[in-house]
Design goal:
CATH class: Alpha Beta
Order of helices and strands: HEHEHEHEHEHEHHEHEHEHHHHH
Structural class: alpha/beta
Number of domains: 1
Distance between the termini: 65 Å
Number of helices: 15
Helix content: 40-55%
Strand order of the largest sheet: 3-2-1-4-5-6-8
CATH superfamily: NAD(P)-binding Rossmann-like Domain
Length: about 350
């Protein structure tokens, strides 16, 4: 039955030909980068997810390493303007897919150290195991894994309702079993990934932070701080192999406190309005967010309400020598996002 839906000669399929040409183009671009930068590059560092949005961890790590003069291979999903921008900055850009073993060989071969990360996805565990298998095959000397801090509260008998949390806990176990030289990095909630996405609209329209966090405390950390830690680990991974680092911001406080921080940063009164989790969850689904992601965010809200995000660590300062960005500093840097353009005028 399967054969009946496949062309007798796969090479005659337009889709096959299109995929073949795409692979050929990617290989040409890959080899061009290699020639331009030299046939071999000492201490080559791989960054996955390098073409993420502005302010994304992978992209920020890539930019930091390039500024330090490091040889960086940037893995991207597509050959587009973001990939070209990385190439223009000096990165060797390779198109790859964490779920495709063939492309992973091309991506990882020749790299001494690498940073692995993937966005919230039901394919997270499969991507981790694929990457670990190929990294082990090619003898990677340092594997920096982006995890999350809730994993610290999980075990073979303790979990959360979020499928993503379960996948990330299992991924850490698989990496530990692999024998790879792994360093786990576990940030708490990201300022850019949560507060910059989910609070600006209500702050602009009603001067309120509307989140289902109750009285729970939280210690969000900025992408720039996480990226500085990862760049530090990638540069000299050996002293950190086998260790786990937990990354938080400089304060763990409730949302009333952070509303005052918003107020100071924006120059107007911002208040916190607690809302029920379920209507908030339904609103996220109506916005078109994937159910897997929404279920994860709803679990994060429940854990906040239960006080499970009341966390503090000095690992950012210990590893980088710089204090992490505060909520007030972060909101001030992004004031335009939280301000209605008509009111600002």
């Amino acid at each position: 039955m399967v054969d009946s839906v496949l062309p007798r000669n796969p090479a005659a399929s337009p889709r096959f030909e299109s995929n073949r040409l795409l692979r050929l183009r990617c290989e040409i671009l890959y080899r061009t980068d290699r020639v331009r930068k030299g046939k071999t590059m000492a201490n080559l560092i791989l960054v996955t997810g390098a073409a993420g949005r502005v302010g994304g961890v992978g992209r920020t790590v890539t930019e930091l390493l390039l500024k330090q003069g490091k040889a960086v291979r940037a893995m991207v999903r597509n050959e587009d303007e973001r990939a070209q921008a990385l190439r223009d900055k000096g990165a060797e850009v390779v198109v790859g897919n964490l779920l495709d073993l063939d492309s992973l060989h091309r991506v990882i071969d020749g790299c001494d150290t690498m940073y692995f990360a993937m966005s919230v996805s039901g394919d997270y565990l499969a991507a981790t195991v694929n990457t670990a298998a190929v990294a082990k095959h090619h003898g990677v000397k340092g594997f920096i894994n982006m995890s999350q801090m809730t994993v610290a509260e999980m075990s073979i008998t303790e979990t959360t309702p979020s499928p993503q949390h379960k996948l990330q806990w299992l991924s850490e176990q698989a990496l530990n079993w692999s024998g790879l030289p792994v360093v786990h990095v576990r940030p708490t909630v990201l300022l850019e990934g949560f507060f910059l996405i989910l609070t600006p609209e209500s702050v602009r329209e009603t001067n309120q932070i509307r989140l289902p966090f109750g009285e729970g405390k939280t210690s969000p950390v900025a992408v720039e701080d996480v990226a500085r830690v990862i760049a530090t680990l990638l540069a000299i991974p050996q002293p950190h192999i086998g260790k786990i680092y937990h990354l938080t911001g400089p304060q763990s406080e409730n949302m009333d406190f952070y509303a005052r921080e918003y107020s100071e940063a924006l120059g107007r009164t911002i208040t916190f309005q607690d809302i029920p989790v379920e209507p908030w969850r339904e609103g996220l689904l109506q916005r078109g967010l994937p159910a897997h992601l929404v279920n994860h965010l709803a679990t994060m809200a429940d854990l906040h309400r239960a006080g499970r995000y009341d966390r503090m660590s000095d690992d950012v300062f210990a590893l980088t020598g710089q204090k992490p960005l505060s909520m007030q500093e972060f909101v001030r840097k992004n004031a335009a996002t939280f301000t209605d353009s008509a009111k600002a005028a």
